[in-house]
Amino acid sequence: MGTERINASRRNFLKKSAVLAGTMVATSAAEPFNAVLFAANQPDKAKPWYGIGIDIEKCIGCGYCAKACKLENDVPREPFFFRSWVEQYTIKNDGSLKVESPNGGIDGQKQTVPEDEIFKTFFVPKMCNHCEKSPCVQVCPVGATYDSPEGIVLVDEKYCIGCRYCIQACPYGCRYIHPIKKTVDKCTLCYHRIKKGLAPACFEVCPTGARIYGDLNEKDGVMHKFLKEHNCHVLKPNLNTDSKLFYNGLSAEVR
Amino acid sequence: MEHLYEMLSKVDGYIYPNEIELNWSILIVLYPYITGLVAGAFILASLERVFKIEVLKPTYHLALLTALAFLLVAAMPLVSHLGHPLRSYEIMTTPQPQSAMAIFGFIYLWYLMVVLLLEIWFDYRRDLVLWSKEKKGVLRIIYKILSLGVTDLSKKTLAWDEKLGYFITVVGIPSAFLLHGYVGFIFGSIKANPWWSTVLMPVIFLFSAMVSGIALVMFLYMIVSWIRKVKIDMPCLDEVGKFLFYVLVLDFTLESLDQVHRIYEAEESFEILHLLVTGKLTYTLFIFQGLLGTIVPIITLGIFRIHKPKESIRKPLYLMSSLLVLMGIFFMRWNVVVGGQLFSKSFLGFTSFKIGMIGLEGYLMAAFWIILPFIILAFLLWLLPPWKKHSEEHI
Amino acid sequence: MPPQLKTLLPLMVVFIGLFILARHFLIPESFGKYGHYRANSMDEIAAIPANYAGKAKCVECHEPEATKLDSDLHSGLTCEVCHGPGAQHILDPKIKGTLLKPGSREFCGTCHSLNPARKTEVINQIDTKEHHPEKSNCIDCHNPHAVWELKE
After folding, report:
1. Do A73 and A197 belong together in one domain?
2. Could you give the C-alpha distances from A49 to A35, A146, A153, A222, C118, in angstroms and in order?
3. I need a surface site. Which of A48, A128, B359, C41 has the fewest CB within 10 A?
């Protein structure tokens, strides 16, 4: 009689754990792990969701993008603060790497390394990546920086207290303190131009069409085409920022 | 902005153009230092109250008042460093729930109002009421206000003082951990910066806070006793030294673990961090924080565990150890905050640290913020002297 | 209830009440509409005037130059990349001061000077010092709007 009772409780236990295990397996199969390959996780399909594409093979390092950005957005002309800048990478034959960005590249760039020592050299334009999971938005203590419904990361200069936490959190070095306003400033993807139907200044002036921007929601739009036709990379993918700035031709050395 | 041009010429390698200027300077080194002193002093006080380590009693009130004096100043370096200090109320009205920094307003208020002020009030209430009867003039009014009008000194009410004070202290211990632990989390959670981003950061910050707080109380106890021309209670001082030794060993172990782990895994950032530590941080890390701030005090206090020399040798050695530890922990904060900004996030270069004498982020400003708590403490010790507290039998 | 709590608890309630009241007045309007931020700031940023007008605007008046540009290799360029931001000029065509009329070796060399990082398929490059040193500026020979239409 005693053994029957024990067997019954053991049976119950086994039944319960089997049901639990089965549910776990079933639900995990119902929603398989969905690694988002490019930031296609559009919050609201009705609205545009902006992404950026930069083709390194087409960039000639003229720096007009950086210059236009400064002129368009009244960024201080000193060589310190840039919403967008151009870097010149030079890999020498001995394997050493030299990166430079004199004055952010706004006056163009010269190659000072003699040609016979160069293994490989290219330009990399940089700007805010407008990350979907931006670490800068995550750390703002008051909500002065945010991800707009169009996927653009903006700063509310009337609300920013200037604590500089977001500048520390940005892995790409895109933010700075405006020396006069004393609030944080950064690339806004020329939000004020996009809203008027104009292209952002840096995309407007690029002479080779190395920079494109567009709606990631738009099927067969420019961004989808760019992503399909090229092998694109983002900077620092290991940090999982879900950057929406896709580079074509990003070499392994680029930081 | 001329100083930036000068810094531009000192750039070593490649930095992102916006990284030229360090965003968090000496004021942000001071803030964790001061809150660390607060948390550490409070923990020492709670050792006596909650864990009933009676021999520490002479330092109990001193530790509490020290914690209060430093906490009152703690927020000031933060607010004065902001680009828009007048907007700092926004952290209280609209704290962004995902940000570790947003917790600052509430944890600070909680710790100040509920933990420290209440504990001191419960402990001093009886004396406040008695002093309000004994003193004359303005002081009489001040003590009356401080007693909040709760003048009942019956045995039952006094027992409540004890019970509630004990409860607050118990609540205060995790609050102290939170007060300083969140600062460690602020740094430890920044994945963009590999010098800061480590799981151990909140724990390291907490233990170094305890070390600095205990050292501060040790130092102040000796100084205050010397000023008052009163004999130092050596068993108490020895006990404080004992706790300082053990926590110092723990702190050193944690920091070493962090570094060993970093060296072993040698991730992408290792090359630049190695250059940082062996280059720009050589003096501040190895000499000031490591050798002088940690190793020498550990050896000194450790020897006392085995062989206690006579009092006339122990006293100056305790003084020296506490000062060395205080300096060492300051440099630990320096190495974390400033060190983390000296190298570029491109891992390809370094910028330089520039600080002036005057200006909102200059040496003089920092000196002001660190000296002010001592002045406040002197005032508190005059207003609420622990040694003039009425004995138990006094009616 | 002990007298301490009889005094402290009401004090706490008053304090918290004052805080909630202050919060009501201090939180700006439109905060929280779309997320933890002031929604009006998006409109404020959108209202900033643009400095670059865009090629379409230039073409409205300067058709001959635009047609010329379309005929040759510089067709992909906007007007403002060489001439500078033109929004002021669109508002008041008399304002021309900020617009540039460049053509020096240094200016054209920003894009066309020899640089190993530039792919020759993407852009023609010359040594700005050695290319026809007898002429002082590039536009002495090259019409910037029709670059292979050489003078003499």
Report:
1. yes
2. 19, 15, 12, 13, 32
3. B359
**Residue B108 backbone phi and psi in degrees, to 5:** -65, -50
In a domain, A44, yes or no: no
Most C CBs within 10 A among A62, A74, A188, hence the mutation to make, goes to A62
Task: Please name the residues between 83 and 122 in chain A that touch chain C, using a CB distance below 8 Å.
Answer: 88-90, 107-111, 115, 118, 121-122
Whether residues A12 and A86 share a domain: the answer is no
The chain A residue lying nearest B90, using CA atoms, is A142
Asked whether residue A180 is assigned to any structural domain, the reply reads yes
Is the pLDDT at A8 greater than 90? The verdict is no
- Average pLDDT of chain A is 87
- Put simply, the answer to whether A139 touches B23 (Cβ < 8 Å) is no
Domain of residue B111: give its range. Answer: 27-266+360-386
Query: Same domain, yes or no, for A74 and A13?
Result: no
For residue range B357-382, list pLDDT tens digits in order: 888 888 999 999 999 999 999 999 99
CATH number of the domain residue A109 falls in: 3.30.70.20
Lowest pLDDT segment from A36-45, B79-88, B117-126: A36-45
**B160 vs C contacts (CB less than 8 Å):** 2-5
Which residues of chain B does A83 touch, with a Cβ-Cβ cutoff of 8 Å? Answer: none
Checking if the pLDDT of B206 tops 60, the result is yes
In contact, A53 and A226? CB cutoff 8 Å? yes
User: Read out DSSP for B45-67?
Assistant: HHHHHTS--GGGHHHHHHHHHHH
Q: Which residues in chain A are closer than 8 Å to B85, comparing Cβ atoms?
A: 161
Mean pLDDT of C21-44: 92
User: In total, how many domains does chain A have?
Assistant: 2
Question: What residue type is assigned to position B394 of the chain?
Answer: H
- Three-state SS at B6: helix
Q: What is the arithmetic mean of pLDDT over C109-137?
A: 90
A72 has pLDDT over 60: yes
Buried b (16+ CB within 10 A) or exposed e, C99-125: eeeebebebbbbbbbbbebbeeebbeb
Domain count, chain B: 1
In a domain, B303, yes or no: no
**Contact criterion met (CB < 8 Å) for A204 and C85:** no
Q: How many residues does chain C have?
A: 152
Q: Is residue B17 part of a domain?
A: no
Give the pLDDT confidence of B252-311 residue by residue, as tens digits.
999 999 999 999 999 999 999 999 999 999 999 999 999 999 999 999 999 999 999 999
User: Tokens 């060399």, residue?
Assistant: C109
Helix, strand, coil % over all residues of chain B, rounded to 5: 75, 0, 25
Same domain? A195 vs A125: yes
| Cα distance between the two ends of chain A | 73
Nearest-CA distance B66 → chain A (Å): 28
Q: Is residue B345 part of a domain?
A: no
User: What's the domain range around A112?
Assistant: 50-248
Contacts of B150 in chain C (CB under 8 A): 3-4, 6-7
Instruction: Mark yes or no for CB contact C41/A191 under 8 Å.
Output: no
Does A254 reside within a domain? no
Which residues from chain A sit within 8 angstroms of residue C36, using beta carbons?
143, 146
Q: Are residue A1 and residue A58 in the same domain, yes or no?
A: no
Per-residue pLDDT band for B163 (boundaries 50, 70, 90) equals very high
Residue A224 lies in a domain: yes
Please report the pLDDT score of residue A147 as a whole number. Answer: 93
Q: Report the C-alpha gap between A177 and B361 in whole angstroms.
A: 15
Whether residue A216 contacts residue A151, with contact meaning beta carbons closer than 8 Å, is answered with yes
Which alpha helices (H) appear in chain A, and where do they start and end? 2-30, 64-73, 135-139, 165-169, 191-194, 201-205, 222-229
Q: Which residues contact A8 (CB under 8 A, 6 or more apart)?
A: none
pLDDT bin (cut points 50, 70, 90) of residue A31 is very low
* CB–CB contact C3 B150 (8 Å): yes
